[in-house]
Specification:
10 strands, alpha+beta
Length: 382
């Protein structure tokens, strides 16, 4: 194990993030693991310390944010393997009326011409998740289709919806049956929040306050594939949400939350070990989830123009914001402060999970932390 990794996290916590867990594996074996900080540190945006501050551990569950895109991509590619979906066929086959130039390949490479994001919660504050989804997949094309690169959550939301329509099951079930189940990612899933058995959640909010000891979970009360709230890291203080204090156990991303907590671009929660297992599966050709030729296409440079990195299908290659000195590494980052990087040439996978948006977003230093972990990973693989 690496004392250096411990020192890297210790230097970042709590200034950069209140909690952090990092894992580094070489040839599939974990060579360094570290956890630091507190899953819940603050009660509010004023950085008031919570009375109960559970320590982070390797078993902690974090909101993975945009790492969720890798799970959506894997589910879509699994359907493509079976011929249920075609990467280069118009999505209008499933979403009538859509621009015929829009394909899954363009959605997964952010070249479909959609705006970067759409705050459907603000546009339709009183609508149902279904009505909001209908509006999301009707988002107009506003930029050139086919490129240049324009990062868009809208595109991955649409890709997830197409996968639902093609498979006939909701996205969370699809990801479970096609990705997390086959890969045995038992602590990964959507919507890990639960209602205590004697005091059910109401519209006024859960009957417990963040920063207080978590009540016991009822039998069968957890989302399948997720974890009980006592293991989940808190994210941002959002007074507009139904519960008091900082968000915990429900997705941080506003659009995913407005869509019911399950969307193609965000919503997955998981542990560092499970994210590591996903990375290793991709490094080794897909494991039980995907065929090697499918993964090869996923990781192939798709020729996207005007991006600060190369782009595969749903995955970034050589993203300077997360790979540090590992120029050939692929992976993804998440807005909450998460990242997964995989270097095939170094036979290396590294995971960093944090809650850098707790209690507020915009705190400096997460890029430096990601670079430091990647640099340590390179040292350990040399």
């Amino acid at each position: 194990m690496s004392d250096r990794l411990d020192a890297i996290l210790a230097e970042a916590v709590p200034g950069v993030c209140p909690a952090a867990v990092a894992l580094i594996a070489v040839d599939g074996a974990v060579v360094a693991a570290s956890a630091a900080g507190e899953l819940v540190r603050y009660r509010d945006a004023a950085f008031t310390l919570a009375e109960y501050r559970p320590s982070a551990s390797r078993e902690a569950v974090f909101d993975l944010a945009s790492i969720s895109k890798l799970f959506t991509t894997a589910a879509v590619l699994s359907l493509a393997e079976e011929g249920v979906l075609g990467l280069d066929e118009p999505v209008a086959a499933w979403l009538p009326g859509r621009d015929p130039r829009i394909t899954l390949r363009r959605l997964l490479t952010h070249t479909a011409g959609f705006q970067p994001t759409r705050r459907i919660d603000l546009e339709l504050p009183d609508a149902s998740p279904a009505a909001r989804m209908a509006a999301m997949v009707s988002t107009p094309v506003t930029s050139p289709v086919g490129g240049p690169y324009l990062y868009s959550d809208v595109g991955l939301v649409m890709a997830g919806r197409v996968a639902e329509l093609a498979s006939g099951i909701p996205l969370d079930q699809l990801v479970r049956t096609r990705v997390t189940g086959p890969l045995n990612l038992t602590a990964t899933g959507y919507r890990p929040v639960f209602s205590p058995p004697t005091q059910p959640t109401t519209d006024s909010g859960p009957p417990y306050e963040i920063g207080s000891p978590t009540p016991p979970a009822p039998a069968g009360g957890l989302s399948q594939g997720a974890a009980d709230l006592s293991r989940v890291a808190a994210t941002e203080w959002k007074p507009e949400r139904r519960g008091p204090g900082c968000v915990r156990g429900e997705v941080h991303d506003e659009t995913s939350y407005a869509l019911g907590g399950v969307a193609g671009h965000a919503g997955v929660f998981g542990t560092a070990d499970d994210v590591l297992a996903l990375g290793e599966a991709l490094r080794l050709g897909g494991g039980a989830a995907l065929r090697p030729d499918t993964v090869a296409e996923m990781l192939r440079d798709q020729g996207v123009t005007d991006a600060p990195f190369r782009h595969g299908l749903g995955v970034r290659i050589g993203d300077p914001g997360i790979v540090g000195p590992l120029d050939d590494a692929f992976g993804h980052s998440g807005f909450t402060g998460t990242s997964l990087i995989v270097s095939p040439s170094r036979r290396l996978t590294a995971v960093l999970l944090t809650n850098a948006v707790h209690p507020v977003r915009g705190r400096p230093g997460i890029r430096d932390l990601r670079t430091a972990v990647a640099t340590e990973a390179l040292r350990l693989s040399s």
